């Protein structure tokens, strides 16, 4: 994600960059406040949960744009939610990637790397506290950088968010 | 979603519309081809699975922009993936909504309604077939309209996409 324009062996770029990024427009509805900065960020959500427990960090917090405070109505502490957020600064032009941890090059759609045509992150977390008047939400953990723009909060539903028992 | 500018009892709109939708820009990476049209669309993913099985519809198909074909490299049939797609035409200005099926008004972030500030749909489905040369993917089911723009495909991961055992 910080690799600027470097290309590793086996990686494939889009021939002419990402192309139009105005097929649709996003609004940032808030920011995710976390203990993590570039260079000191857990590798994934599980690692974030472990570090928050082991190192005594405060729980991550979502600071909503106050215009969206009422959109929290009926959300409950203890409830699992899916967060969608914008991986600001991630490059968008790699179609095949060779991440350091993988055994070889893989397609972007077979990876959870932040590098993707639309750098939207998704994570399922637990709402641990919620303050409608302050337009804030506390969550159990997340692995993104401090100040990451938030796009959406969705109640997690087993019938939509888990693979079916049989396909 | 088809309710134009109607407002039901208990619903709350943003005071000045959605505001800037150019905080970030999206690129459509393909289209989702489904049997569903406006007015004849299953209510949710489970209902879509049931109708596809009961009514003998062909499985939904993803037609990728050919520039992104190689991004499928290393995806496997049988694998669960999360799809992110753009709910074209959904209104974006409701903060509190009163859906017909709910017992009362609820915040947008407590609902899976397509009406949201960033109308991004998320569904976990199974890849049933995949043709890299044709840049197409077949999936077990989905409940969106035919021709819905695709934003992303992510491998589904239990550690990221399921609520933790303990928060």
Largest sheet of chain A: 6 strands, antiparallel, barrel
Instruction: Please state the structural category of chain A.
Output: mainly beta
Radius of gyration of chain A: 17 Å
Physical arrangement of strands within the biggest beta sheet of chain A: 4-5-10-9-6-11
**Residue-averaged pLDDT of chain A, rounded?**
92
Oligomerization state? homodimer
The string of secondary-structure elements of chain A, in order, is EEEEHEEEEEEEH
Total DSSP E strands of chain A: 11
Strand content of chain A: 25-35%
- The helix count of chain A comes to 2
Number of domains of chain A: 1
Shape of chain A: globular
Give the full name of the CATH homologous superfamily of chain A. Answer: YaeB-like
Report the helical percentage of chain A.
Answer: under 10%
Largest interface (C-beta under 8 Å): A-B, 72 and 72 residues
Q: CATH class of chain A, anyone?
A: Mainly Beta
Describe the structure.
The first copy, chain A, has 167 residues and is mostly beta strands. Chain A has one domain (26-157): Elongation Factor Tu (Ef-tu), domain 3 (Beta Barrel). Chain A contains two helices and eleven strands, in the order ββββαβββββββα. Chain A has helices spanning 45-55, 158-161, and strands spanning 12-13, 15-18, 24-26, 30-33, 61-64, 80-86, 94-97, 106-107, 120-131, 136-139, 148-155. In chain A, strands 4-5-10-9-6-11 form a six-stranded antiparallel beta barrel. The model of chain A has no long low-confidence stretch (mean pLDDT 92). At the A-B interface, strand 3, helix 1, strand 6, strand 8 and strand 9 of A face strand 3, helix 1, strand 6, strand 8 and strand 9 of B. Strand 3 (24-26) of chain A pairs antiparallel with strand 3 (24-26) of chain B, so a sheet runs across the interface.
